[in-house]
Amino acid sequence: MGIFINNGEKFIFCFLIDSQTNLMRHLYNISWAISGTECELQKRNMTENGLGHRVLNMDTMNPNVKRVEYAVRGPIVQRAMQIEKELKEGVKKPFTEVIKANIGDAHAMGQKPITFLRQVVALCAYPDLLEDDKFPEDAKNRARRILQACGGGSIGAYSASPGIEIIRQDVAKYIEKRDGGIPSNPDNIYLSTGASDAIVTMLKLLTSGEGKNRTGVMISIPQYPLYSAALAELAAVQVSYYLDEDKCWSLDVGELRRAVKVAREHCNPRALCIINPGNPTGQVQSRQCIEDVIRFAAEEHLFLMADEVYQDNVYAEGCQFHSFKKVLFEMGPEYSSVVELASFHSTSKCFMGECGFRGGYMEVVNMDPEVKLQLTKLVSVRLCPPIPGQALLDLVVNPPQPDEPSYATFIKERTANLDILAEKAKMTEQVLNTVPGIHCNPVQGAMYTFPRLSLPEKAINAAKEKGQAPDMFYCMKLLEETGICLVPGSGFGQRDGTYHFRMTILPATEKLKVVLKKIREFHKRFTEEFS
Amino acid sequence: KPNMTENGFGHRERVLNVDTINPNVKRVEYAVRGPIVQRAMQIEKELKEGVKKPFTEVIKANIGDAHAMGQKPITFFRQVIALCVYPDLLEDDKFPEDAKNRARRILQACGGGSLGAYSASPGIEVIRQDVAKYIEKRDGGIPSNPDNIYLSTGASDAIVTMLKLLTSGEGKTRTGVMISIPQYPLYSAALAELAAVQVSYYLDEDKCWSLDVNELRRAVKAAREHCNPRALCIINPGNPTGQVQSRQCIEDVIRFAAEEHLFLMADEVYQDNVYTEGCQFHSFKKVLFEMGSEYSSVVELASFHSTSKCYMGECGFRGGYMEVINMDPEVKLQLTKLVSVRLCPSIPGQAMLDLVVNPPQPDEPSYATFIKERTANLHILSEKAKMTEQVLNTVPGIHCNPVQGAMYTFPRLTLPEKAINAAKEKEQAPDMFYCMKLLEETGICLVPGSGFGQRDGTYHFRMTILPGTEKLKIVLEKIGEFHKLFTEEFS
Q1: Residue B2 lies in a domain
Q2: Chain B residue with minimal CA distance to A121?
Q3: B312 to chain A, closest Cα gap in Å
Q4: Which residues contact A322 (CB under 8 A, 6 or more apart)?
Q5: How many interchain CB pairs under 8 A, A with B?
Q6: Which member of A16, A55, A208 has the closest CB to residue B263?
Q7: Do the Cβ atoms of B334 and A66 come within 8 Å?
Q8: Is residue A473 packed enough to be buried (19+ CB in 10 Å), middle (13-18) or exposed (0-12)?
Q9: B5: nearest CA in chain A?
Q10: Chain B residues whose beta carbon lies within 8 Å of the beta carbon of residue A56
Q11: Interchain CB distance below 8 Å, B316 and A230
């Protein structure tokens, strides 16, 4: 329990129960100065054992941290976890399980690991297994190669801070192959603890200036809230640009221009972030769009950050993943020798879904050499990303080849995972679009749907009375009545007066069918209840 | 600035350059992986390419990485991890039953039964419970609440998170954080990046690097004139100094923190690395609670531990945790929110930590091998600690305090005036000048004391005691020879 302070005079008695030791009683006498902006706190604290005002409290803590929000693991997820506990304790509910469709975690929803990847990592973890003939020779060779590159032949040794050298080389080769031969320099590859780590590092480097000169960073509405959280923590300025819901969440350069022009009045826009394929929206941007964005970044002198963690998750006919690096270089040296770009990838998504390993990398293009030294220095303080994650990444970028024993199984598993996701993407779009009041854009890629909800006026008012965003009100009710945990659109950003939720397409097909059905039924009930 | 490149296109000033980059990042230094290590890596490449040198290998005695220097992993830990990574192995009868049970228990606590799923952000619940039990057992039964345990990506991650939470204010109210001279430069680096104020307190080299509360008082008093001291960090056992603080000292520090209203951060990653007779590890948590509720209900404490050191040396797994005591409940909500943005620490690292805090018990099949490996590792370190101290102290001009614990020696060097001047001409710290020369002539890579902090006019280096015993003997011999030659050359 905490202290709630409202405007006006209030005396508040707060009973604090410390879960760890004793029951403590604090008596606060709070009186407000007439100015209204200052508050004189006279605290006479009487505890059973004399606890005074803490060193680290809400007033002394880092104010930037207070401004951080991360909806993907926010209040609704905390309520979902509470409900799960209640179910375990036998509390009766209208459902028997909580379905966590809030987070892009494929394994948690039943997807199986890729066999080859786990064989190699197991061999690396316990090299005695190299004698075990249950493991195929290509897996053993990968493991030996990785271990040779580790200090003392052990994945327990620190690596160089940008990552194990041969893995950076493998990443560079992967990029070259993916991008039709456009060269990639391993020195420009930095392995990281998930893509999030590298994204935060770049934003940190970019943040400087004061007041009107403070770094502004352009990011989409809607966006994956790592960006807004990191910008809040760094006290950089978030510069929002709207994706066009009516055009399948595509990006219009006219909107980028509007946003940057407005931003220049109060900050110094230095970077433009784009997530492609998109999270939460699932759009796969066209090649034309990517060229436009690059051209815009060049004209407006912006550092481009391309979050491409869903690069294998493309489902819709006619859609294709175009890496920003590739398009940049195909646009010729007028752009490719000028535009500063950082591209991000991860082991958490695509066909492997290895979130828990925290594997990832970024490739930096046209980075100032002195800044690059600073980047290398900065990552050295945290020593290195986890070696199991680096090893896993190596297998993602250097998978079994057609002439290798493990290829058949590998390609079968990979194809199955991506096919199933594609089917679920279609099914999700179809079913949700049969619900009056729910409109779902095609899930072209990634792992989510972000449908738009028509909410009755009465519901919106009920939400406001509770001090809740209307889509949070909706999602909370859905959770309590069905056990389905989604994240309200307000956690990602949306146009004023619009409401959405983000749902993953990751529950197993049969379960997903049930989830979609329940959402449809809930929406009908909800609309009737608040009509 | 228009620059013409080879292809004739104007090469204007970059968006992200040394003027627009985060100024705090520029102020960050981390000597453990700094310039001398970069030169060592360059030399290694040259050796590979066949360049002739007065030595055949670079000996990296700069970083506390046991496996890199030949220490073998603990068998049981790697068995369980392998079982978790590839559960098909649960059918393999080459694995002992206790390893399989540990693996099943961990996997059951993972989403979808896979290490590839994200966990809750503070870490897998059952592992947090195991950590709490470990702490209770270590601290003679003093309760530990799993809700106060936050797993992290190495101890560094949790330390930075706490420093971040503590940093607020402007100008004279800017957070000041007390940290030892010498210190492990993660602290100075993090404080520079956060633009918090580093408040240095000197450890007493003449008294085996012990901590004197009067020195703490001097430091905090001086600091209050220009910042708002809010935290006190202490590394025990110490890095780079290797001292193991006495129980009396720990009580004094706790009392001081209570009096001066400071948040205590106890970096205890070397808690099993205690070598000297008469020295013992006392956890800050334990001492705090044994001092009674006048302190134990008031002093805010965060204690840190890791899988990287001790007897296991699993640096690459990036496992760690912190326990927070008496944290404001609202701040705790903020902490939980903050760690949620990065989702969770690496699951393999969490699993490794679980085995460290929940190792084989005497009644389990793997116990005999486990205890043998653990004992051997700690024993060998203890011998190397003694040998290092002995040998270095035979060298005129090198004075080495006892290596009571941790993994390093931080001997003091007497450098001739001429050498100090030569260094200044090169714009190098004298101990950097010394260490660079040592590297070029012997291939031995150490870190100059200037990277950790030291009293003005004193010079040190930090060397790990981790090379294999025979190799360490050679290293110590070569350092002795080098010091003699160096002193002669600059006399």
Answers
A1: no
A2: B85
A3: 9
A4: A285, A287, A290
A5: 327
A6: A55
A7: yes
A8: buried
A9: A337
A10: 165-166, 230, 263, 300, 327-328, 331
A11: no
Q: Which amino acid is at B363?
A: D
Chain A residue numbers touching B86 (CB-CB < 8 A) = 118-119, 121-122
Distance from CA of B468 to the nearest CA of A (A): 11
Bridge partners (DSSP) of residue A238 are: A217
CA distance B220 to B455: 18
Residues of B in contact with A155 (CB under 8 A): 316-317
Instruction: Judge whether B17 lies within some domain.
Output: no
Best CA proximity match to B350, nearest among B71, B105, B67, B69: B105
**What pLDDT sits at residue B11?**
52
Q: What is the CATH number of the domain that holds B398?
A: 3.90.1150.10
Q: Please indicate, yes or no, if residue A2 is contained in any of the structural domains.
A: no
B272-320 pLDDT per residue, tens:
999 999 999 999 999 999 999 999 999 999 999 999 999 999 999 999 9
* Widest Cα–Cα separation across chain A: 81
A368 contacts on B by Cβ (under 8 Å): 14, 16-18
Q: Quick one: which H or E segment has residue B200? A: strand B197-202
A163 plus A100 within the same structural domain: no
Q: Which two tokens stand for residue A441?
A: 């854009």
- Does the beta-carbon distance from A56 to B230 stay under 8 Å? yes
Q: Indicate yes or no: CB of B262 within 8 angstroms of CB of A55.
A: yes
How many separate domains does chain B show?
A: 2
With an 8 Å Cβ cutoff, are A356 and B115 in contact? yes
CA distance A460 to chain B (A): 27
Rounded Cα distance, A502 and A486, in Å: 6
Q: Are residues A457 and A326 in the same domain?
A: no
Between chains, do B297 and A49 touch, taking CB under 8 Å as contact? yes
CB contact under 8 A, B21 and A56: no
pLDDT for position A11: 42
Cα separation, B59 vs B472, in Å, equals: 10
Task: Give the residue-averaged pLDDT of B420-428.
Answer: 96
Q: Which of chain B's residues have a Cβ under 8 Å away from the Cβ of A71?
A: none
Q: In the structure encoding, which two tokens stand for residue A145, read together?
A: 């190669």
Separation between Cα atoms, residue A320 and residue A277, nearest integer Å? 9
The answer to whether residues B451 and B332 belong to one domain is no
Residue B177 host element (H or E): strand B175-181
Range of the domain at B345: 102-357
Mutation test of the interface with chain B: which of A58, A65, A68, A379, choosing the one with the most B Cβ atoms within 10 A? A65
Q: Measure in Å the smallest separation between the Cα of B7 and chain A Cα atoms.
A: 8
Sequential pLDDT tens for chain A (531 residues): 444 444 444 444 444 444 443 443 333 333 333 333 333 333 333 333 344 589 999 999 999 999 999 998 989 999 999 999 999 999 999 999 999 999 999 999 999 999 999 999 999 999 999 999 999 999 999 999 999 999 999 999 999 999 999 999 999 999 999 999 999 999 999 999 999 999 999 999 999 999 999 999 999 999 999 999 999 999 999 999 999 999 999 999 999 999 999 999 999 999 999 999 999 999 999 999 999 999 999 999 999 999 999 999 999 999 999 999 999 999 999 999 999 999 999 999 999 999 999 999 999 999 999 999 999 999 999 999 999 999 999 999 999 999 999 999 999 999 999 999 999 999 999 999 999 999 999 999 999 999 999 999 999 999 999 999 999 999 999 999 999 999 999 999 999 999 999 999 999 999 999 999 999 999 999 999 999
- What amino acid occupies position B231? A
B196 with B51, same domain: the answer is: no
| Cβ <8 Å between B334 and A126 | no
Q: Contacts of residue B7 in chain A, CB cutoff 8 Å?
A: 333, 337
For residues B322 and B376, state if they share a domain: no
For residues B355 and B134, is the Cβ–Cβ distance under 8 A? no
Closest residue of chain A to B121, computed from CA coordinates: A73
The pLDDT value given to residue B2: 40
Tell whether B256 and B150 lie within a shared domain. Answer: yes
From residue A358, how far is each of A345, B92, B223 by CA, in Å? 11, 28, 40
